Amino acid sequence: MTTIALIDDHPLAINGIGAWLKGTGRFEISGTAGMLTEAGALMERLETLPDVVILDVSLSADDGLLFIPALREICVKRNAALPGILICSMYEDAFIVQRALDMGARAYVPKSAESNEILAAVDALLTGETYINEKYRPQNFTLQVLTRRENEIVSMIKRSFSSKEIAKRLEISLRTVENHLAHIYAKTGTKTREDLNSL
After folding, report:
1. What is the reported pLDDT for 141?
2. Would you say residue 143 has pLDDT above 60?
3. Is residue 59 pLDDT above 60, yes or no?
4. 115 plus 173 within the same structural domain
């Protein structure tokens, strides 16, 4: 049976998605977590890593996408394959989708999606494919001209992080964040954070 771990800080989401997946008779929930530390501890504790991880972008105050590199390290340490990673989030923004893909996710489904779309995404992961609903595919031209770091910063701005918070989370100086922002504004033809949010 296919095993799935659910990483989300909303118990309702975990219980709802978990119960629905189990109800199909095809999946077993190998564990759940609501914070980054809990997610890491869960993976360390599991005898066998799950086939698929369903992950939220925001885990309380934590950036959920940071779980992906942490999971990759655990896989290297255990000489195990990286599970298929499905991002299931309320964020329906091309920059955030792009950042998730850049970090190693292979499927992205908004929480507003029908449950059968989650199933389609899981099935795609199990066959080694990528799944992103047409509506949420990164199609904005700016995605091609921005670097990975710049996309990362834009996705954090769209989640209302201040420059100071971005600097702290990315472990770079505030000046470096401001320099990146200047490049982002120039490349996207914007002048303010509000302009970026409207892209």
Report:
1. 43
2. no
3. yes
4. no
* CA 73/CA 71 separation, integer angstroms: 5
Give the residue among 56, 45, 52, 59 at the shortest CA–CA distance from 28: 52
Partnered with residue 58 across adjacent β-strands are: 63
Same domain, 87 and 161: no
What is the greatest pairwise CA distance in the chain? Answer: 53
Q: What DSSP letter does each residue of 29-73 carry, written as one string?
A: EEEEESSHHHHHHHHHH-SS--SEEEE-SEETTEEGGGHHHHHHH
Q: Which domain holds residue 9?
A: 2-136
For residue 35 the two structure tokens come to 């914070």
Identify whether residues 64 and 147 lie together within a single domain.
no
110-133 burial code (b ≥16 CB/10 A, e <16): bbebeeebbbbbbbbbeeeeebbb
**pTM for the complete prediction?**
0.73
Q: Which two tokens stand for residue 170?
A: 């990315």
Cβ-based neighbours of 68, under 8 Å, separated by 6 or more: 55, 85, 100, 103, 104, 105
Lowest mean pLDDT among 48-62, 85-99, 139-153: 139-153
**126 and 44 assigned to the same domain:** yes
